[in-house]
Design a protein that fits this description.
Two copies of one chain form a homodimer. The relative contact order of chain A is 0.11. In chain A, the strands form two sheets. Chain A has a five-stranded mixed β-sheet with strand order 3-4-5-6-7. About 8% of the residues of chain A have low confidence. By secondary structure, chain A is mainly alpha-helical. In chain A, strand 6, helix 25 and strand 7 form a beta-alpha-beta unit. The first copy, chain A, is built from 26 helices and seven strands. The longest helix of chain A has 30 residues. Chain A folds into two domains: 329 residues, no CATH class; 173 residues, STAS domain (Transcription Regulator spoIIAA, 2-Layer Sandwich), CATH 3.30.750. Chains A and B meet through helix 17, helix 19, helix 24 and helix 25 of A and helix 17, helix 19, helix 24 and helix 25 of B.
């Protein structure tokens, strides 16, 4: 039989392949090339003006930040201009966000600067002279951009791999306080790394734990010792014009930049996806995290062949697009055109730009991120736990690095959530006589002192079953004791039928019925099901009958396997039907008792 | 002011110290020495017979397992007898569980065997001759027990430190599938380590990843190659009588056994606390995890001065106590007395006990743990995720070691729970006309097609807000579309008041009101509050009014800080009052409209 089936499967597969029509190909293209879905519907009248204006504004930022972040990355400024041109072009084709502006970014530049300073200054001889006199730049400059391009390439490959592994959904683990504090911490790193340029000094970037403080310290010392150096102002220097011929990034460097590439891939993607989500929420459109991974991966891998430094979406430029009313990625495409113009026409005039101005551009560009300190007040007011997460993640980020801060923040925020889940309320009692609908109320009102409803309001799993057990027992005891009081007070007045019978027989009157409403148990694990089954088995021994309402089929099965003997009359589809069943049973009992009494 | 207050604080502190009376001291002693609370109330008539019988049964196991596990720990058998005597004595004083039987335990013995084999066989010269000819044993034997005692001492210190850090509550993270699979995996390790004794061979214990398989392989090879060795049967050998004089464990070894000590402290405590919890659940008494940590810590630290190997509660002996009806730790104390008798009188006769018999004792003692394979069927039926957790944890345990399996299991089971939480249902809609109580029903029935209730049934935090947003929008759309159908069908029959007015004015009729019942939001973080606030602000723009019911004060504050303008009439203490407010407002509007119509 299986032998005869195999051709069938094959036939099916072949059929499916032959059935792939134009519609499927079109759907796939639209999904993977979002530009195809929005560009044909682009309304020139509505959007072009806003996009052009914001595109022009963006160009100024792209050029200024491109030069500044390239210098920060320890590479020649012209590569910053390339990085402001190619990545936005590719993102506009593959990206889903309408407002995200990719290109150079302070935090990723700082990460790649770590790799460049580490590899090129110390191991100058390790690099082959891959391009002599290319673009009129020295070998030393080409080695530096080689390392930066290697980080870009590997980071992009990592992002594309994450897309192939469908890791986009892990974005779920990033909460706003974590991203906010991590970026603030990274921005603090960047600002402190720029102190030397403000003071006109040149020290290498020192990475590693507590490196930041060492930098600060050196700068201060140098400032007080070498005051006279300040008067000779550093400038950007000569910038070549034109677009370079594509070149493969140095593959022998890849193994040396794995740490930086991972760090850049994670931190860059985190900031980018957060900006994309924010703009999607604000302007009500949808973002696919995996497609974004692909878009950012491609806009790193392809530009790495064109001498680009690591790039990601930058908050400052993205907010600029919001504020100037940009509608689509056309704004970024217009800015790309203008950057191209700058590269061919204006680049040489950037020679006299002082380094300290670049440092100011960087720090001003980070203003938004540093302003996130104000979030602290918001978190304090809304949720103290989030405040603690913010502060701890910030401290870890400034003491170590952005990637470590990010990982710490994710783990810490998940741990805090688990802690809070284990302490969250799981059950609450309902007074039947108060919260019941009319169909059932008149019918059972004479017995309502004998029945109570307890709602389970959370999934039951090993982290909260202990809390569930304690709470359930507390509520049960509270309900039963209240019931006693109520009964003693009300029985003579309200229950004429049971009044006479039960006066002499206290034990039968003590038996109460508890309806457990399981509609809140959206999932359960073995421990949860076993605990519920145990409670259901214990209660009858303590004189309380149990009726289960709104149980899932899987929960009924699980309770059965956990040792709870299934009796169909114990499971009801709703609280209402449980109460109806209880009432009719009580009536029967009362009638039988009445008959017995009359017989006597 | 603060200066004048300081003496006040001091006075208060002094007052509190001077106020410590007999009652406080007594309470502290009862809490830290549980024996004081149960021993005075011990009923000789009720419990003594059962305790004596089960104590005698326990002695046989304690002696047999003591000798067997000591040999397995690569130390002289007499130390196993000591380990069956001192730890249960101390646990009976400090422990809270009535049925747990501490002493030698296969898994902890295997862990300490790793340390002994590693340190004594390879680095014989590293140990000073601390006790020459003591108990008539060779220096080599004394060095071996020295290492085992060092593991015991350090493991106990770690457990006491965990008690001081109040880490007992972390027991919450241990779920039944994880402990079950970890112990089964560890038992598999023990069984495979005993194969050589069944076959009468002697090979060193090889620890480390995949070491288990290497053992098995060697044994099989030896078995087929050295068949003749099998005929010369190994026996236990001479056992000295008497109790040794206390001696400090070799402190210079401590740094070499840190890994084993941690492993033993965690795995031993995990098994012990799980047994204690099980017996507490079965016989309905309370366990304090921190007190248990203290009890197990002390019953390792003190016996480590008396040449004891690492000990913990063993499932086999604990189940023996259950099954023979033991009531209290008196059973263990009786067994201690009998073990003392064995040490002084019967020990020399153990000489001829064959090693293969010991191996059988070990394997039979592990039967219960290996039988846990049957749990797999249970997990498969109740919860597939738990089945996966069991299988993965088991595989990690047998490939690596018990401690790694334990850590993997905890992390994996928590990750699975988070995954399920992010996918759990968060909201459900209520049909107002169906599920409403009688007070409100007649009053609003004419408007009930205009109002719907949505219940939020889970805490809102960053891991599930995305799911919440999607689900909420889906339910909202579903409710609104159903409302439209319902309205179109029912309006002519049921709503005579609105019927005439709204026929010409579709837009005003489209405005629905949504009551969001927040009673299920037991906690929230910033992201959760911000998402809810955003939804509440978006809906009015889409033509749906929002009323919030059963909001916590902190949630109202948080919504306000998240940008949701507070208007007191939007927050209600219950769904009922929200519906009443809605009805009275609708009536006013209808009346005004009617007036306007009549004016026209």
């Amino acid at each position: 039989m299986p032998r005869s089936r195999r051709p069938e499967y094959l036939t099916l597969a072949l059929e499916r392949i032959s059935n792939i029509g134009f519609a499927d190909v079109k759907h796939w293209c639209l999904r993977r090339l979002p530009i195809l879905s929005w560009a044909p519907r682009y309304s020139l009248q509505e959007n072009l003006l806003a996009d052009t204006v914001s595109g022009m504004m963006l160009t100024i930022q792209q050029v200024a930040q491109g030069v500044a972040f390239a210098v920060m990355s320890s590479v020649h400024p012209v590569f910053g201009l390339y990085s402001s041109l190619f990545p936005p072009l590719i993102y506009a084709i593959f990206g889903m966000s309408h407002h995200v502006s990719t290109g150079t970014f302070a935090i990723t530049s700082l990460i790649s600067a770590g790799a460049v300073e580490r590899l090129v200054t110390s191991n100058k001889e390790n690099f082959t002279n891959s391009s002599q006199g290319f673009l009129g730049l020295s070998d030393f400059e080409m080695q530096r951009i080689g390392v930066a391009a290697a980080v870009t390439f590997l980071g992009g490959i990592i992002q594309i791999s994450m897309c192939l592994l469908q890791l986009g959904s892990a974005t779920l683990l990033l909460s706003e306080p974590v991203v906010s504090s991590m970026t603030t911490g990274a921005a603090t790193h960047v600002v402190t790394s720029q102190v030397k340029y403000f003071l006109g000094m040149k020290t290498p970037y020192i990475s590693g734990p507590l490196g930041m403080f060492y930098i600060i310290a050196t700068s201060l010392v140098c400032y007080f010792v070498d005051m006279e150096n300040v008067y000779g102002i550093n400038v950007v220097g000569p910038i070549p014009t034109g677009i370079p011929f594509p070149q493969v990034p140095p593959m022998d460097t890849l193994t040396n930049v794995v740490v930086e590439a991972f760090s850049f891939a994670l931190v860059g993607y985190t900031v980018s996806i957060f900006l994309a989500h924010n703009s999607a929420k604000k302007f009500n459109y949808r973002i696919d995290e995996n497609q974004e991974l692909l878009a950012h991966g491609l806009s790193n891998v392809i530009p790495s062949f064109l001498f680009c430094i690591p790039n990601a979406a930058a908050p400052a430029r993205t907010f600029l697009l919001y504020n100037n009313g940009a509608k689509t990625q056309v704004a970024c495409l217009i800015s790309c055109l203008l950057v191209l113009l700058v590269i061919y026409a204006i680049a040489p005039f950037l020679y006299w730009l002082p380094m300290s101005v670049l440092a100011s551009i960087i720090v001003v560009g980070l203003k938004g991120m540093l302003m996130q300190f104000r979030d602290l007040k918001k978190y304090w007011n809304v949720d103290k736990y989030d405040w603690v997460i913010w502060v701890c993640t910030y401290l870890v980020t400034i003491c170590f690095a952005a990637n470590i801060g990010l990982l710490f923040g994710v783990v810490f925020s998940v741990a805090v959530s688990i802690f809070r889940l284990t302490r969250a309320k799981t059950v609450h009692g309902i007074q039947v006589n108060e919260d019941l609908n009319e169909d059932i109320k008149p019918m059972h009102s004479e017995y309502c002192h004998k029945v109570k409803v307890v709602c389970v309001g959370m999934p039951l799993f090993f982290l909260n079953v202990k809390k569930f057990r304690t709470e359930f027992m507390e509520i049960k005891n509270e309900i039963l004791s209240r019931n006693c009081l109520y009964k003693h007070k009300e029985t003579p007045l309200l229950s004429p039928v049971t009044n006479g019978d039960c006066a002499g027989d206290v034990s039968s009157d003590d038996i109460s019925t508890l309806v457990i409403d399981c509609s809140g148990i959206t999932f359960f694990d073995f421990t949860g099901a076993a605990t519920l089954a145990q409670i259901c088995m214990e209660l009858p021994n303590q004189g309380t009958n149990v009726l289960l309402a709104s149980c899932d089929v899987s929960l009924v099965d699980a309770l059965q396997y956990s040792g709870f003997n299934i009796k169909n009359q114990l499971f009801f589809d709703s609280v209402k039907s449980a109460l109806i069943a209880f009432t009719s049973k009580e009536r029967q009992t009362t009638r039988l008792e009445a008959l017995e009494t009359s017989d006597l």
